[in-house]
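Lay summary

Proteins are chains of building blocks that fold into shapes. Our project writes down both the chain and a compact code for its shape. Here are two examples, one after the other.
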Amino acid sequence: MKIAFTSDIDWAPEQVIEDFLDLFLEYNVKCTFFCTHESLTLKKANKDLIELAIHPNFNDTLLGKTNNSPKNIIDNLMNIYPEAVGVRSHSLTSNSYLQLLFNEFGLLYDSNLYYPFVDKAQAYKCWTGLTRIPFHWEDDLHFYEKKSYDFDFTNLIENNRLILNFHPIHVFLNTDCLETYQQGKKFYQEPNELIKFRNKDKIGTRDLLIKLLKQSSDMNFDNVKLKEIL
């Protein structure tokens, strides 16, 4: 089985990011991080296992809450992560203008297409110059659909690369449902308080990730960073 782990860090504090990263280091599994802000934890991490990409947020610009242009938003993140070759927008915001702008900044791929468990969802070269890499599963969308975390990915998709997306906040909380997240998110930037809301009663996001990391390590899955798909 071929598998690629990704993560949208979504402004998580360093302690939460470090907790997430430590799981990948423990099992020696690769992960691509889409970054919303500067994380010294990630910048110091083992680049043999970790790819750093950008996760720009255009929502406030679209909603008229700021005059900050998409170009400035991308430029700010590229100054923090000049090695980035990949992008996934917050809320998966994408259009031809942004695609061309990503290309202008030297980005090589985007992962803004969500195709849940579509077996034939392959990466392809777009006319904008970017390679578009779809992903197949995301932790928060799973609990928004009120689905159980007690299941096995290996029975759901075959003969294709499975690309998964986890958020450090949901792994830290072991989120199993929307209510768990809502109870804890008011302490989003206070890990010592946030940990008190970690789900210990039901199988959640953290449990599922650890299960997959063990499988990936023990069963020698073909594990890649997204830029390696290029």
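And here is the second example, written the same way.
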Amino acid sequence: MCIRDRKYALAHDVLLLQAAGNSHKDIDATPYFPTGRDRKGVKYENYMRVGASDIAGAPAGMSNYGRNEVDVFAPGVDIRSTTVGNTYMYADGTSVACPVASGVAAIIRAYFPKLKAREVKEILVKSCRRSDALGGMCRGGGVIDAFEAVKLASTY
């Protein structure tokens, strides 16, 4: 996704979510592209990165992390999904965690259509289920929580 597309999304109040990546790196220290920043390094307010957590709420072994560059974690280990041939499979990674977060964002936008993309992002980050294991690994300090997000959104 190029900067022009991100600017277009910002101008049209679209929340963009990106998988944080599966290299088990601190992407605060090691750049991971694409980024949610403009050419001057300013972070887009409508852009989120999502890491993968396991069932216990700890970071998945493969997930990238970063207190500044990753906003939230979402379930991303042993996620059952459809696959080619009309069958099912289990998958791990931030690319299966990101759709979980996108789904929660979609619920918030559907039930609270007056909220702006930046407000939905703020809600998702603030309403995380806190985890000691994730405390320093993302901005929200935990795993996305749909119930808490809806409760918080109702106060905006």
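What can we say about the second shape? The beta strands are 16-19, 47-53, 72-75, 79-83, 87-91, 129-130, 142-143.
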